[in-house]
Request: fold
Amino acid sequence: MMKKVRKKIKAYVSKINFALHRTPHVIEYKDTCPSEYIPEPYRAVIILSADFELAWAWRFAYSREISERFAQTARKNIPKILSLCDQYHIPITWATVGHLFLERCSKNGYRAHPSMSRIPYHKSHYWSYNSGDWFEHDPCTDYKTSPAWYGPDLVKMIVRAKTQHEIACHTFSHIDCRDCVCPQSVFIDEINECQRCASRLGVSMKSFVHPGHTIGNLNALKKCGFTSFRTDYRNVLAYPEKHTSGLWEFKTTTEIKYREEWSLQYHMYRYTKIIEKALKAQRLCYFWFHPSIDPIFIEVVMPVLFEFIVSKRNMLWITTTSAYVDWLERNER
Reply:
């Protein structure tokens, strides 16, 4: 009961802050011209990013059963999302857990992926790993037997879609990447395994999303050939910034999700208003979401949101993270 009350209060406060224009916050810059970050003839840029994880994200936060339930929802949603993307010609940056590239895997002795370095026990805002083996939930079967833990069929569906999406990296097994938790050797093992598995499907990754917003190992990430990462410290309308590591940092505008405390009409109103705000401020609008989102959002809200985005196509550059970075690099002073 108290949890529901807290959720209602949080949703209500969020609506107040939005009505008072406190969120998303428009970051102001000195001596910066919008044309440095917004290509002509556009007035704003929009990126949609999906954290593609299936069951890997929540296994140390909830039960295996709940994690697999999230995965089942995502599997049902992704074909519908891709269909909408093709209908409206809207690309998505799919931040993909590397294990999903696999068709199958098996145990060598008693452990899954014995060649992989293990992350030490740790606790974060999203999960607690304090016993057992990091890969203990890996079924070590195949994508037909255990579709919650493998996703090559979905990756191929994304790659072969009419719309040109981007496959980004979300580590191999959804690890905490913070420097205080993750040794560089573990991080590099995760990235190398991602790149190896992705290359089998003809995928090359340049953009990176830290699981659970656990920012870290940025210098190692740059050395591994990546060009950008995403942060979520605060909901903002901003420009990408060049980090000291040499990577481009993308600050998120908001997570698009379904809140049962909001009406469907309010969902539509809120997200379209954010885009209008980005156009007025001449900023990047960076939306992100989980494919395991409530199906009603995809069926009712997402078509309206996509239709609105397309209606602004002459003013709004609809692109992926890596395509935007390519433009930034070409136009960097």
User: Anything to note?
Assistant: The mean pLDDT is 96. The chain has one domain: 29-331. The first helix runs from residue 2 to 19. The CA atoms of residues 28 and 294 lie 34 Å apart.
